[in-house]
Design a protein that fits this description.
The chain has two domains: about 120 residues, Nuclear Transport Factor 2, Chain: A (Roll); about 170 residues, Tetratricopeptide repeat domain (Serine Threonine Protein Phosphatase 5, Tetratricopeptide repeat, Alpha Horseshoe). The protein has a six-stranded mixed sheet. It is of the alpha+beta class and about 375 residues long. It contains 17 helices and six strands.
């Protein structure tokens, strides 16, 4: 063999020897199962989750406007609060050291499951498999037709949606603060007054403040769409008239969780119909605490105390730092005759929000039963 041929052969051998072996479907499947199985352990899940992400990991989905890099400092224990997390891999296609993966991940909370359809790229990095890219869509994020705020202010719009989420989390104190900020940015934002009405009804108990917020919203909502108009109208009515107005609002925004929850609440005299409305909302928006809160009360009406407790406890698990879920849990324990646990729940609500007057009143009644009667 001449020198040139030998050198060429040696170079080829070196190249073949240095070419990494392609990953296999089994390796990818094992990685996915192991990565997913560690995602229901709260604080203990954070480091395994980080370890499963590539150095240049990027994600995309309906909650962001463009592909994003992952800020690992934002990864928190409450990302991993399900009972179990599993993945069903639908398709794997190998491209050397990388694999294209389609599948469905499922977070199971016992009372509901949250499915996310995903596509991602898994690849080898520093001798191990990691996620390099991820695109996922949760089933509940495909809901559409929600009430939109009428404003030209980006700040007001952003704070409106913060307010909206806080209402659906039953964190009414936070919702009111977001509404104040939204109104400071745009004092013509009619729908921001929804939070002020809720604050007056459920926290301060002020009929005067409720009427002032309702009157302000009614004056401003004239230029809004029909869903907003009928929603504000419903807030000033009662009985069948209120339900009729809510029904008209739902015709324009049939998937709006706030409208679904309030309509279910206002259907209180028809427990079965209210429960069906709640189930409709939970199917699309399983994490919304408002549905679990209301379901708990409706199941108590049906004397299903075990089912009611499950929903109230799940609500405090989803929202441990909001007062209203603990107040509702206290109501359950009062109904169940467990005054000790009821007292603890009301005290927890007041620890979180000392201005939550409903819990203070109920706690006073427990501590001074003779005065309550």
């Amino acid at each position: 063999m001449n020198r040139l041929t030998f050198c060429a052969a040696a170079a080829a051998a070196l190249m073949v020897g240095c070419t990494p072996a392609p990953i296999t479907e089994q390796e990818v499947t094992d990685f996915l199962e192991n990565f997913t199985a560690s995602q229901n352990q709260g604080e203990a899940s954070i480091e395994p989750f980080k370890a499963g992400l590539g150095e240049d990991f990027m994600f995309f989905g309906p909650a962001v406007d463009s592909a994003q890099t992952m800020n690992r400092d934002n990864i928190a224990a409450d990302w991993f609060d399900s009972d179990t997390t599993t993945t069903a891999v639908h398709h794997i296609e190998i491209y050397g050291e990388n694999a294209s993966v389609f599948g469905v991940s499922t977070d199971d909370y016992g009372l509901f499951t949250d499915n996310s359809k995903y596509h991602g790229i898994v690849g080898r990095e520093n001798g191990k498999l990691v996620w390099k890219r991820w695109f996922g869509v949760n089933d509940w994020r495909t809901s559409t037709s929600m009430m939109q705020p009428r404003t030209e202010s980006d700040e007001a719009r952003g704070k409106y949606w913060d307010m909206y989420r806080a209402i659906m989390r039953n964190d009414f104190a936070a919702a009111s603060l977001h509404a104040d900020t939204a109104l400071a940015a745009d004092d013509q934002l009619a729908l921001a007054y929804l939070a002020k009405m809720i604050e007056a009804a459920w926290i301060t108990g002020s009929a005067e403040d409720y009427r002032a917020a309702y009157d302000a919203a009614t004056e401003l909502v004239a230029e809004d769409d029909y869903a907003a108009k009928y929603t504000i109208e419903a807030m000033g009515l009662s009985g069948d008239e209120r339900i009729a107005a809510a029904g008209k609002a739902l015709m324009h925004c049939p998937h709006d969780p706030l409208l679904i929850a309030w309509t279910a609440f206002w259907l209180g005299d028809d427990t079965d119909q209210s429960i069906q409305m709640i189930k409709r909302g939970m199917k699309r928006w399983p994490y919304m605490a408002a549905f679990h809160n209301l379901m708990g009360y409706r199941l108590m009406q049906k004397e299903d105390m075990e089912g009611a407790l499950a929903h109230f406890q799940l609500q405090t698990r989803l929202l441990p730092d909001a007062a209203n879920p603990w107040d509702s849990l206290g109501d359950y324990y009062v109904e169940a005759g467990n005054t000790e646990e009821a007292r603890k729940a009301f005290e927890k609500a007041l620890e979180i929000d000392p201005s939550f007057s409903a819990s203070q009143r109920k706690l006073d009644e427990l501590n001074n039963p003779s005065e309550a009667s």
